[in-house]
Design goal:
By secondary structure, this protein is mostly beta strands. It contains two helices and 31 strands. Strands 2, 3, 4, 6, 7, 8, 9, 12, 13, 25, 26, 28 and 29 form a 13-stranded mixed sheet that branches. The longest helix has 20 residues.
């Protein structure tokens, strides 16, 4: 009888050992190896001349307790300072290539550096900080990282590594939504908003943005082109989602957007011109051509102060400035498009230049009720005072 019990225990032990070897434990990694290729791009902004971010390392989670460093694998160690605004129109910066055990990986962690590299910025000056912006007036603002993010930015996005295959992923760093203007703390903040893109089904939209001056067609440089999703039944803060964006080239006014399949409003805009949009149904692995001709118009400003009652000085409000537009002539009624957005820290102030017209301003922040300020009229050379108080 003892022999039978001992034999049964041996069988169970061998079975458990076999299941662990086949990935039956906490890790989802299986036999064989594949390759992970990582690159960086930017869903950009026209609010700044440069946005510099230092990326030290990228880790991937291999399964098990995510608080244990042994369950993470370092897959890239660039330790370089990048200007995100250079990474537009399909430009991608390689971060690293790594061989990994085949299997499913649950998430990534991006480690932001606290020391710049030895390079120079576009003004031929050494980087003064690891993370900073240069605004339209050529002023520097260091970007501070909130203490909760100093151990890395967790990117919850699963992906698979297949044996003997290469998985190519792009970290799409959204500069416009990652920068928080100074508030009560007096600090500009970096709160990275990053999406992981799988290139396998990518399509591309290309075109030019032009206008007319003195009866002659001219190319518009640094015009902002974005791919936006509109959902009228979603929560108001999520009715307009920017999936990606780019700036037209400084030499020829051309743009390129890599984008996942779906239905989008492609929106073109530049300060001093009225925005235009066009609806596109994007199929996998296709190329689309879409040109815009913008009309010059007057501009005004919307400005004010932001306060989040009973909140940390590091919490911020996202202000989305939206207009009604008919992006699809065959569909009755208007949809909303976002013309601009800014993040403003608690007890901070903002001032946004917009083309003349009527706007809805959507103010949202974590854990609070989203507020909408409709019928915000922007008139030529005028200033609309709009203070935001969130309770």
């Amino acid at each position: 009888m003892k022999v039978l019990k001992f034999s049964s225990w041996i069988i169970l032990f061998l079975f458990a050992l076999m299941m662990t070897a086949c990935g039956g434990g906490s890790s989802s990694v299986s036999d064989g190896t594949g390759t992970l290729s990582l690159s960086l791009t930017d869903a950009t902004t026209d609010e700044y001349k440069a946005v510099y971010v230092t990326i030290k390392e990228v880790w991937v989670h291999m399964g098990g307790n995510e608080k244990k460093d042994s369950n993470w694998e370092v897959v890239a160690s660039p330790d370089e300072t990048y200007n995100l605004l250079d990474l537009v129109n399909g430009v991608r910066e390689d971060l690293g290539i790594s061989d990994l055990p085949a299997g499913h990986y649950t998430q990534m962690r991006l480690i932001i550096g606290d020391r710049p590299d030895n390079g120079f910025n576009f003004m031929s000056e050494k980087h003064p900080y690891a993370n900073y912006i240069i605004n339209i007036s050529d002023n520097y603002h260091e970007l501070k990282i909130p203490s909760g993010l100093q151990t890395g930015i967790k990117i919850v996005n699963g992906f698979d590594i297949n044996a003997n295959e290469t998985t190519e992923l792009i970290l799409d760093f959204d500069a416009s939504r990652s920068i928080v203007m100074a508030g009560a703390s007096g600090q500009w903040l970096l709160k990275p908003t990053i999406k992981v893109l799988d290139t396998r089904d990518d399509s591309i939209v290309r075109g030019t943005v032009t206008s007319f001056a003195g009866g002659t067609e001219v190319l518009l440089k640094r015009a902002l082109v974005s791919a936006q999703e509109y959902d009228s039944v979603a929560d108001v803060k999520d009715q307009v989602l920017i999936q990606t964006s780019t700036l037209t080239d400084i030499y020829d006014g051309k743009y390129s957007i890599f984008i996942q399949p779906g239905q989008y409003n492609i929106v073109a805009y530049k300060n001093g011109y009225a925005p235009l949009c066009s609806k596109l149904d994007i199929e996998p692995d296709q190329e689309y051509s879409l040109n815009f001709t913008l009309l010059a118009t007057g501009t005004g400003t919307v400005s004010g102060n932001v306060e989040i009652l009973s909140s940390s000085p590091y919490q911020h409000v996202t202000l989305s400035f939206r207009q009604n537009a008919q992006c699809d002539p065959s569909t009755p009624g208007n949809q909303q498009i976002e013309v601009k957005s800014v993040n403003v820290a608690n007890l901070g102030s903002y001032s946004v230049i917009l083309p003349v017209g009527m706007y809805s301003v959507v103010a949202s922040t974590y854990g609070r009720t989203t507020q909408v300020f409709p019928n915000t009229d922007v008139v030529s050379s005028g200033n609309k005072q709009l203070d935001i108080i969130v309770d």
